[in-house]
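Final report, closing paragraph on structural work. Over the funding period we assembled a curated collection of sequence-structure pairs, and we close with a single example.
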Amino acid sequence: MKEQKVAVIGYGMWGKNIVRNFYNLNVLDIVCDLDDNSLKNVQEQFPGVRVTKDFNDIINDKNITGVAVVTPSHTHFKIVKAMLEAGKNVYVEKPISTVAEEARILTELAESKGLVLMVDHLLLYHPAVNRLKMLIEDGILGELVYAQSDRLNVNYHKNDRSVMWDLAPHDISMISYVTGKKPVKVIAATGCSSDRNDIMDITHIDVEFEGGMVGHISDSWITPQKHVTLLVRGTKATAIFDDTAPTDKLKVYDNFVPANTQNYPFDYLEIEPLKLACQHFVNCSASGHKARSDGENGYTVVRVLEEAEKMMLGSRVEQLNKKDFASSRINV
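Its predicted structure, as stored:
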């Protein structure tokens, strides 16, 4: 089995976490970023790791088996496509793209080359989320009728697209994963901007999933008190996953007995989800197996977000996409 060597492109706020985890897994080989101070920081904190400003150094290195792309979302298509064409397995920060057609192209390219394309839908690797999925599969909640995901926080470094593109990929992918139901269509989508421009920092999306289950997704960049929960209601019971709780992140409530929390053994390990995701990528790259959050998963999420944004902004979506295309012409 070929030795796995991973490159990371982008050493920003999230890229630092990606670098740390791949380094701790003993597979990190090189980090690419345009900032001199960032590269100096990599060399100081991660001895033996190479650095570069030119992503062609990664493309031309035949020993690199996988690449983590942790750059702004409007650059993903160009960089991921280049890496796949070079025969590299790719781990890409969510969303895979802000255009569904681009996500489809990347997915088909990876499949045609037999390469791993994994999207960083991080919560699919969260131990508590996977425990919830097991409870649902065991029929503990009964027939699923409703899911609600609230991801509310403060972001002082807002992107050039709405909060929906930043946070909702987690919500959509997580709801679909734990329930085993694919999204069918967007029922409603609204949003507003506290800065009174097209960059909405509060969004609400209603999505119909297979079997008629409805999912409601709320995301915010302006909520001072962090609130990250997933509620899944069935005909028998309701489960709540609270990722902000220090302990007991997952609870199940009987629908018919007030204040009754059912005592199921939630014997999951408290392991950093990102560590599990990075390990999953390494394992898939070595085995050739599809990732849990593969390109198809990424495409499905982008298709939902694209549909929701059209409801929110109408014809102004085209202007945003043109802006993204122009700004994607970068030298990484």
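Confidence is low (pLDDT under 50) at residues 325-332. The CA atoms of residues 35 and 53 lie 8 Å apart. We thank the funder for supporting this effort.
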